[in-house]
Amino acid sequence: CDPFLMLGIESSCDDTAAAVVRSDGEILSSEVTGQAALHAAYGGVVPELAARAHAERLDIAVEAALAVAGTRLAELSGIAVTAGPGLIGGVLSGVMCAKGIAFGTGLPLVGVNHLAGHALTPRLTDHLPYPYLMLLVSGGHCQFLIVRGPDDFRRLGGTIDDAPGEAFDKCARLLALPQPGGPHVERVAAGGDPGAIRFPRPLLDRPGCDMSFSGLKTALLRARDADVAEHGGLPERRRADLCASFQAAVADVLAEKSRRALAVYMEEEAPTAPSFAVAGGVAANEAIRSRLETVAAGAGARFIAPPLPLCTDNAAMIAWAGIERIRAGHRDGMDLGARPRWPL
Ligand code: KG4
Ligand code: ZN
């Protein structure tokens, strides 16, 4: 019966998160504990360390989510947990935690695809009607999806190699900026000339919505080395130009591919309330976001970017996807498994 409360659990990468969400879209709590400090010395997420940290922190996260929401397990109507895709150790930790609670309380258990969690977020934040177009753009993902229902996604294209966030992180590493690199590249880019260096716009000459970003870092490496050779080091102004030009190349590719994806969506779905939503850490980038906003406006679609804490990894989106799944009659048993690979 409505409204009901759902607990969400997320541990598929390097954030341990738990949340309580009400079925009318009210977020009662959303606790996220990152592991940046844990992995900082290794230059990337170490799966074994991540899994152990999740196992240690999940109970604490769940207790905190319940306390902040001012609720008890007995008042919930279900438990939603990320069952993949992601790092297997972390996903397993979350699934085991959720199963334990479901077993102890008798509450229904719902396994959620992490990507579906991201993709359904605009329904939680903006009550967006189906079907809408979604660009998922983070450190690990980059794809266009037409979202038609809680379990009905049509993939229009995506990256064939690196995700844009990954490319930003590599760009930052090459220019001796801190990790995660996106926000730092954006900050430095603000003082540079986006037209200074002509980086490639991969796959723009080919039809469709697929993208490629791995060539950009090679181009950046070459441009940086040329500068270093010429100036005997990298002057601040050139570093700013490199960041600005790199960001412009990513923005150009995302904008043009979004334009194409929107055209397919408008033509084939004929939506009555056309909407284009973005999610993922890269959606935090102002330059990229304003380009996407312009593209949406040009196609006559509403543009939606959920607030950043709900764009990046969190458990509120998992609870919400669980709410949508339970409403649609889905339910998982104690045999729910962890799926490291799980395309939508
Ligand atoms: O969605 P997210 O928090 O985590 C996953 O990848 O799942 O995204 C993190 C990624 C990182 O690669 C980070 O560098 C990038 O998003 N990012 C940005 C910005 N803020 C975060 N990239 C470009 N510009 C930004 N302002
Ligand atoms: Zn994610």
UniProtKB/TrEMBL annotation:
<protein>
    <recommendedName>
        <fullName>tRNA N6-adenosine threonylcarbamoyltransferase</fullName>
        <ecNumber>2.3.1.234</ecNumber>
    </recommendedName>
</protein>
<feature type="binding site">
    <location>
        <position position="182"/>
    </location>
    <ligand>
        <name>substrate</name>
    </ligand>
</feature>
<keyword id="KW-0479">Metal-binding</keyword>
<dbReference type="Pfam" id="PF00814">
    <property type="entry name" value="TsaD"/>
</dbReference>
<comment type="similarity">
    <text>Belongs to the KAE1 / TsaD family.</text>
</comment>
<feature type="binding site">
    <location>
        <begin position="136"/>
        <end position="140"/>
    </location>
    <ligand>
        <name>substrate</name>
    </ligand>
</feature>
<feature type="domain" description="Gcp-like">
    <location>
        <begin position="26"/>
        <end position="320"/>
    </location>
</feature>
<keyword id="KW-0408">Iron</keyword>
<feature type="binding site">
    <location>
        <position position="169"/>
    </location>
    <ligand>
        <name>substrate</name>
    </ligand>
</feature>
<feature type="binding site">
    <location>
        <position position="285"/>
    </location>
    <ligand>
        <name>substrate</name>
    </ligand>
</feature>
<dbReference type="InterPro" id="IPR000905">
    <property type="entry name" value="Gcp-like_dom"/>
</dbReference>
<feature type="binding site">
    <location>
        <position position="118"/>
    </location>
    <ligand>
        <name>Fe cation</name>
    </ligand>
</feature>
<feature type="binding site">
    <location>
        <position position="186"/>
    </location>
    <ligand>
        <name>substrate</name>
    </ligand>
</feature>
<comment type="function">
    <text>Required for the formation of a threonylcarbamoyl group on adenosine at position 37 (t(6)A37) in tRNAs that read codons beginning with adenine. Is involved in the transfer of the threonylcarbamoyl moiety of threonylcarbamoyl-AMP (TC-AMP) to the N6 group of A37, together with TsaE and TsaB. TsaD likely plays a direct catalytic role in this reaction.</text>
</comment>
<dbReference type="GO" id="GO:0061711">
    <property type="term" value="F:tRNA N(6)-L-threonylcarbamoyladenine synthase activity"/>
</dbReference>
<keyword id="KW-0963">Cytoplasm</keyword>
<dbReference type="InterPro" id="IPR022450">
    <property type="entry name" value="TsaD"/>
</dbReference>
<keyword id="KW-0012">Acyltransferase</keyword>
<keyword id="KW-0819">tRNA processing</keyword>
<feature type="binding site">
    <location>
        <position position="313"/>
    </location>
    <ligand>
        <name>Fe cation</name>
    </ligand>
</feature>
<feature type="binding site">
    <location>
        <position position="114"/>
    </location>
    <ligand>
        <name>Fe cation</name>
    </ligand>
</feature>
<dbReference type="InterPro" id="IPR043129">
    <property type="entry name" value="ATPase_NBD"/>
</dbReference>
<keyword id="KW-0808">Transferase</keyword>
<dbReference type="InterPro" id="IPR017861">
    <property type="entry name" value="KAE1/TsaD"/>
</dbReference>
